[in-house]
Give the backbone structure.
Amino acid sequence: MHRLDAARHYRNALESADAGAVLHAAAEEGVPLRAVAETIGGRLGAPVVPLSEEEATTHIGWILRFAPNDNPTSSTATRERYDWRPQEPGLLADLNQEHSYA
């Protein structure tokens, strides 16, 4: 999520959440990792190509343990209970902004 949305959510949680509450804030659901890679690669003029597991391990190492996991997220309960609404650009829109590559 955008850092400003995260900051608003964190402040709201500090001011409103019950002690011990578990909150989950996700501005978007289901953004494919490949779309993130393609957006960044496109902005940098770098090719995005599939890699074998061995090749991927060489390039990204430990994060490979997490990359293939399907880990859907939802902030529906947090949004409803604490009236939190993301306002900033989504991940792919933000990655397409010039400030991400300055």
User: Anything to note?
Assistant: The chain is about 45% helix and 0% strand.
